[in-house]
């Protein structure tokens, strides 16, 4: 039952830290070759070297996914250096906190530029190849905030609700092409997005860790190609 993912090629956005980095490492342990995308070159280089030491191929591209031209160029480069993607993990995202009249208009819009338009830019560039070969896997990282808004998160929740709608519609569009679209909605995960640079705050007994999400991503991808998990929610068991 299920399938091996060894030898496949995965592109991961936001692979320089947190969930994206942990997923890159976990997939590499399964023999998946990895294309890493994010803005921080040194971090990408470090992750890429770590992955190569696990015996798979890895390439990275420095890219701001909110810029469509940069995305087109980065994916073209990855396709040449590594091969075209069998798996796309739409993980890159940013957050801000503050009531609607406190967050600046520029900050508010930037959340949508990265989380919504960035996800669109990468997906539209990678999809034609998946359609051509009539197979592929796309994982969308939305959030518990993409299902339930909370005070102080109009931009973040709005963007994650938008990803929810995009993912649902995309899933319906590409099912006939045997492309599986999985949408994940984690609650709090101990990453820089939540704790900034001070990850000493992350309490491994209480909070979900990026490695937990990575394990779940791998297990979804290993499902038999005839089945996928349309939507899932990841909760910490006892964060109180
Ligand atoms: N942590 C949580 O509690 C939680 C809960 C639910 C959902 N999520 C979602 O999980 C995803 C990953 O977040 P994380 O928690 O792992 O946080 P993280 O450690 O801050 O990772 C975010 C990643 O996105 C990249 N990124 C940000 N802006 C980008 C841009 N313009 N272009 C390209 N890459 C960009 C960052 O890399 P660079 O800075 O190098 O570009 C980084 O690799 C996000 O979509 C987040 O909304 C997180």
UniProtKB/TrEMBL annotation:
It holds the Pfam family adh_short. PROSITE patterns: ADH_SHORT (PS00061). It comes from the Bacteria. One of its GO terms (molecular function) is 3-oxoacyl-[acyl-carrier-protein] reductase (NADPH) activity. Its EC number is 1.1.1.100. Keywords: Oxidoreductase. SUPFAM superfamilies: NAD(P)-binding Rossmann-fold domains. It is an enzyme of class 1 (oxidoreductase). GO terms for cellular component: membrane. InterPro entries: NAD(P)-bd_dom_sf, Sc_DH/Rdtase_CS, SDR_fam. NCBIfam families: PRK07666.1. Belongs to the short-chain dehydrogenases/reductases (SDR) family. This is 3-oxoacyl-[acyl-carrier-protein] reductase. It comes from Oceanobacillus iheyensis (strain DSM 14371 / CIP 107618 / JCM 11309 / KCTC 3954 / HTE831).
């Amino acid at each position: 039952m299920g399938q091996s993912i060894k030898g496949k090629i995965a592109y991961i956005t936001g692979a320089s830290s947190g969930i994206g980095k942990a997923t890159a490492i976990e997939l590499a342990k399964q023999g998946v070759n990895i294309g890493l995308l994010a803005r921080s070159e040194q971090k990408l280089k470090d992750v890429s070297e770590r992955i190569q030491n696990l015996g798979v191929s890895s390439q990275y591209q420095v890219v701001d996914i909110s810029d469509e031209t940069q995305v087109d160029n980065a994916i073209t480069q990855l396709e040449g250096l590594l091969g075209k993607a069998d798996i796309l993990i739409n993980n890159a995202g940013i957050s801000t906190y503050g009531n609607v009249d406190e967050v600046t208009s520029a900050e508010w819009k930037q959340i949508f530029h990265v989380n919504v338009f960035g996800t669109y830019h990468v997906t539209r560039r990678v999809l034609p190849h998946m359609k051509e070969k009539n197979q592929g896997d796309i994982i969308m990282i939305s959030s518990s905030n993409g299902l339930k808004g909370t005070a102080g998160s109009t931009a973040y929740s709005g963007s994650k609700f938008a990803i929810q709608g995009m993912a649902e519609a995309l899933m319906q569009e590409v099912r006939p092409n045997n492309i599986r679209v999985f949408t994940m909605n984690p609650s709090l995960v101990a990453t820089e997005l939540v704790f900034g640079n001070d990850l000493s705050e992350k309490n491994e007994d209480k909070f979900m860790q990026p490695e937990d999400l990575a394990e779940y991503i791998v297990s979804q991808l290993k499902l038999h190609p005839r089945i996928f998990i349309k939507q899932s929610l990841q909760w910490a068991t006892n964060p109180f």
